[in-house]
Design brief:
By secondary structure, the protein is mostly beta strands. About 10% of the residues lie in helices and about 50% in strands. The protein contains 1 helix and 21 strands. Strands 1-2-3-10-6 form a 5-stranded antiparallel sheet. The longest helix is centred in the N-terminal third of the chain and has 28 residues. It is elongated and about 75 Å long. The C terminus is likely disordered.
């Protein structure tokens, strides 16, 4: 019995020491950061001569999908290998990483994982970590038009075109507009809830819109007899990567308002048949 008690005490002491060592180990090699509604984790999985293998994740704890995500953190190391993410900046002081396109969305409750190898002297856990993507008004950077492709009593099909006139791709875009109809079906875009007018966003087939490129989406609508479908008050927003920004993207901002068409008449093109 005494031998059994001694054995149990030894096991308990060993477990206590191991638990304390593990806690110290994880504290030095893993850290979680909060940015907006997201939790970002940074873990040193392996370490050898001036090299580290880093595993990271971003978890969306909010109620809105995070789109076109990117993040930045302080680091003096050099990335030598990378997976499931792309490098925006690695200048010896700041590392900025962004999505690879196929993983540009993080739905509520979901997590994206990625990693890389890091080379440098005196590598350490980052002091700070934050998302660096934000929503901007891109209406003046695009030409938006529509064409009524087919119509019948009480219904029609319309095609909407978005042409990128800027020098940068339009990524994770949303388009709001008004109309004298109801949308019953939509192709090549996603319809979002909106209290005023209509709000649609890209899907995988219509993002990004490269410089000079045009992407289209179509929808079917119902309309009162005798009325002609009219779309107006176009507002285009997109999510951009801004390494200088410390404010994570807010899907509700900027608030789509009504642009002054008298100042920008060239950005709306109407065709009908």
């Amino acid at each position: 019995m005494k031998k059994l008690i001694s054995l149990l005490i030894s096991i308990a002491l060993l477990f206590s020491v191991s638990a304390e060592a593990f806690a110290a180990y994880t504290e030095d090699r893993a850290k979680a950061y909060k940015s907006g509604d997201c939790t970002i984790t940074y873990t040193i999985k392996n370490e050898w001569d001036n090299y580290q293998q880093i595993q990271m994740s971003v978890t969306n704890n909010g109620s809105e999908t995070v789109r076109n995500w990117a993040l930045k953190f302080d680091c003096s190391g050099e990335i030598t290998n990378i997976w499931n993410v792309e490098v925006c900046q690695n200048d010896g002081e700041i590392i900025a990483l962004r999505n690879c396109g196929y993983n540009y969305e993080i739905a509520p409750g979901n997590t994206v994982e990625f990693g890389f190898q890091l080379r440098g002297e005196e590598l350490a856990l980052p002091e700070s970590m934050s998302l660096c993507n934000k929503t901007v008004d891109s209406t003046n950077n695009a030409e938006i038009g529509y064409e009524i492709q087919n119509s019948w009593d009480g219904g029609f099909i319309a095609e909407v075109t978005v042409t990128n006139n800027s020098d940068e791709p339009l990524e994770a875009w949303r388009l709001s507009f008004n109309g004298n109809f109801e949308i019953t079906n939509l192709w090549n875009a996603n319809k979002l809830h909106s209290e005023n007018g209509f709000l649609v966003e890209n899907n995988v087939s219509t993002m990004p819109i490269e410089k000079g490129e045009t992407k289209t989406f179509e929808f079917q609508g119902t309309i009162a007899l005798g009325e002609t479908p009219e779309l107006s008050d176009f507002v285009l927003t997109s999510v951009v990567i801004d390494v200088e920004s410390n404010d994570p993207v807010d899907s509700d901002k900027p608030d789509p308002g009504k642009p002054d068409d008298s100042e920008n008449p060239e950005h709306i093109m109407i065709l009908s048949i």
